[in-house]
Amino acid sequence: MDEVKKPDSRKVSSTVPDWGRETSKNYWNPWVRLIRSIRFYKKYSKKPYLRWLKYFGVVRYRFWSIVSGTDIPLNCEIGGGLLLPHPNGVVIHSNAKIGVNSLVFRQVTIGKGNHGVPDVVKDVAAEKVYQPVSTM
Prior knowledge:
This protein is α/β, with parallel strands linked by helices. It has 2 helices and 7 strands. The chain has a 3-stranded parallel sheet with strand order 1-3-6, with no helix packed on it. α1 (30-45) packs antiparallel against α2.
């Protein structure tokens, strides 16, 4: 008889964002709150009748940036499912593009080097990235 294979729940797609990675069970989780404040700012800065709420998002963003010790600009493109298990010392250039379900560890700089601003577009675990990343 054929065995029924269960899907592996540990596999993460590189095209479909896993929004469950950006949630937390407890309140004091700085990287989750930082990502939520960036997404809050982007959501309300585009709505003309609720544009005043983006200032609340800026205050939240500044607080959680200081608490987590990161420098992620409000205008960088971040795909869904970003995971920052230890956000201390993370620096991302404002023109960098972070792809879906990316994993960024502590003390990571994704910035402008000799080759321009990198695009971390696929499912990548970043360390020190100064040039464009391609995964096969």
